[in-house]
Amino acid sequence: MSEKTIPYKIYLDEHEMPKQWYNVRADMKHKPAPLLNPATLKPMTQEELSAVFCTELAKQELDDTTPYIDIPEEIAGFYKMYRPSPLIRAYCLEEKLKTPAHIYYKFEGNNTSGSHKLNSAIAQAYYAKKQGLKGVTTETGAGQWGTALSMACSYFELDCRVYMVKVSYDQKPFRREVMRTYGASVTPSPSETTQVGRRILAEHPGTSGSLGCAISEAVEAASGTEGYRYVLGSVLNQVLLHQSVIGLETKAALLKYGIEPDIIIGCAGGGSNLGGLISPFMGEKLRGEKDYHFIAVEPASCPSFTRGKFAYDFCDTGKVCPLAKMYTLGSSFIPSANHAGGLRYHGMSTALSQLYADGLMEARSVEQTGVFKAAEQFARVEGILPAPESAHAICAAMEEAQKCTQTGEEKTIVFGLTGTGYFDMVAYEKFHNGDMEDYIPTDEDLEPGFSSLPQVE
Amino acid sequence: MSEKTIPYKIYLDEHEMPKQWYNVRADMKHKPAPLLNPATLKPMTQEELSAVFCTELAKQELDDTTPYIDIPEEIAGFYKMYRPSPLIRAYCLEEKLKTPAHIYYKFEGNNTSGSHKLNSAIAQAYYAKKQGLKGVTTETGAGQWGTALSMACSYFELDCRVYMVKVSYDQKPFRREVMRTYGASVTPSPSETTQVGRRILAEHPGTSGSLGCAISEAVEAASGTEGYRYVLGSVLNQVLLHQSVIGLETKAALLKYGIEPDIIIGCAGGGSNLGGLISPFMGEKLRGEKDYHFIAVEPASCPSFTRGKFAYDFCDTGKVCPLAKMYTLGSSFIPSANHAGGLRYHGMSTALSQLYADGLMEARSVEQTGVFKAAEQFARVEGILPAPESAHAICAAMEEAQKCTQTGEEKTIVFGLTGTGYFDMVAYEKFHNGDMEDYIPTDEDLEPGFSSLPQVE
Prior knowledge:
The structure is a homodimer of 457-residue chains.
Chain A: E1 9-10, E2 20-22, H1 46-52, H2 55-62, E3 68-70, H3 73-82, E4 87-89, H4 91-97, E5 102-107, H5 118-130, E6 135-140, H6 144-156, E7 159-165, H7 166-171, H8 173-181, E8 185-189, H9 195-203, H10 211-223, E9 228-230, H11 237-256, E10 263-267, H12 272-286, E11 293-299, H13 304-307, E12 309-314, E13 323-328, H14 350-357, E14 362-366, H15 368-382, H16 388-407, E15 412-417, H17 425-432, H18 443-451
Parallel strand pairs in A: 5-15, 6-7, 6-9, 7-8, 10-11, 10-15, 11-14
Antiparallel strand pairs in A: 1-4, 2-3, 4-5, 12-13
Helix pairs in contact in A: 1-2, 3-5, 5-6, 6-8, 9-10, 11-12, 15-16
């Protein structure tokens, strides 16, 4: 291996870390559509939002004009425990693919929650603490968000109540134990502890739950308990704001070595990672300073961007949450048992939805066996075992790099590696044993979800 | 949180990474006793060792005079994929303990094998490849070494055959899947695939295996197969040599900020991490340049240093390996079901044994419930979920820091955090549920192991 002028891993120094988050909405000509009150169908006010979210977070949710927002000192201090995350040059993957492309990935898996989710969890816990709350409630699917939030709450000594989708609760007992290590209480959802849970159990006895259903329970649990608020790990504007730390660090690291990316790729479930990674680059594009090719990658089994409708929809199954205008498959759509649990959500961030509608980025979908094949190949050459969610981005990055092998172009590709797959070995085992299947919903499969969309313009 | 002059995480730049390993034996006045041929009881020659190990590794095993050995370029290249590992200032733990002590830990868990084991695995795989071998065999207990070796073999496209202690094979299916992801074949031990395995199964039907037994099988499998050699992840001199990269990086990072450690702490199973971490510091002590207080921490249930005998013993149950002079509980000693699988070995590195016999370091033992209590406390404030093995060092570091709280001394404590506990959640679950027990063997319990020691001077 010859001497490389760019290191394998670019770490920023602490003083080079971002001191402010970047709010991409400030630079958007077409702002994301406002959240609507499901009862009145009027835009949610800060006061209404503050009944569900912490006051400061409600404010951040609505602020679409301030481009930079200071990262409070306490959060910046916590960030230093596990950030900056490395921007890694995938020399070994490039060699394996014999590609002239230069591939970089921003690796967010080097913390115990195993993903980028901690970036927003610590912010949300901080504002809850500052407001004098006792605790927060949330839902978790695969468990990465729940783990991140339990770590953040433990740090600020807040109570943390997690509703975990029942199928994951049963299949991922180790995730549950990590949350317990951090002192969180974990309830399988749907549960008997909420009205909406009891209703869903009555309607669908024996259901193994869904993210949309767990959200409904967590929201109800928070609104019914003095001193509690609900927090969410994706979709929301506030989450994209906090996650912009990923993109800001990436940008600073690239700048440090004079690297200009051509293509920026992220996996897309609710949009927390994709939005965080691309925000500052998208800002440049929106301001007409630079051009980048953005690619959102989603599972073919849950294709909100590529086959969804851009419409107002409920964020949850129980229809207790505000309505959001987004690319959606309908809140009644139940995604198939894809192993990338973090991407099994019917909707998408409203900001990313608007950007996609405005033609500012590409979206593509990939099938899960292809994703695991890419994941395994990546693990073998780059030494990191990726989460299935993250492997969607790997898959697209490899496709783009292979195009360069064909054309001889020396493109610079940056992708987000959101986390590690240590708690996903059941899925890897299925893949190794040849028991993994692909599933692409037919148009008929999607129809019921679309029919359930509320009639709102 | 106030501004800190020393960063939370000290990362060396790539050009500051060690270019040579350090061989502590070169500075030892009393050299570690040689390995003996179990048939002749004569010191093993390089030729004899080369029948089991790769030629270059056999040479390293015997070399007790060369202080620095170049790290081959290919290994240095692989190290750059996951090293340098961070030296972390435990600001949050210090605050929690209200201690005037300054605590640092060298964190080796940020790679997919989850521990420091990769440092030697990649070196051993490299020399095997260079020698033109087809593959290697090894044993694994908790699975960290097996995972590390399968990653290293995958990188150099070598076949990797792992004998995994049956109880772990059954209880840790996910570890097994990680190894399979890297293309290794994993066999539960004892197995029908070897003579020694069949013999042990005949003598102890239904046995759940042990590390000593898996070693015997792996050695037999290698010696019976053309183009294969056996590799081992601990105990050996060559392993300590490769692992010195931990201590060398630690030393360079401390030097960069003018930090002088008083106490250096490592957990001790076969000695790979402890030896690697302390080697360069021990070198200074041996040469009379500096003084440090070294502490080896072992489980009270498997107390080789603190209650073992310093004697020649077999390294394996099947008695096919050379004899080593070490602190040992006897090769027939079966440690209780302690959850720190990586520390459940009856013996200890010969070099560390000699250093301990010469009074150059302290050893202490801790009980597992105390270890898990420390692990959980650490996870909550430092954000890293430690492996049970690593938590032995945390436990002692916290003891020392609390002494400083009493005395007001501002000691600087450095400990090795060898890895993460993501595959140990069964143990954490037991701890949370109050189902974990401590076990300290009585003198009578230890007697049979001591009686089985071979009569060699």
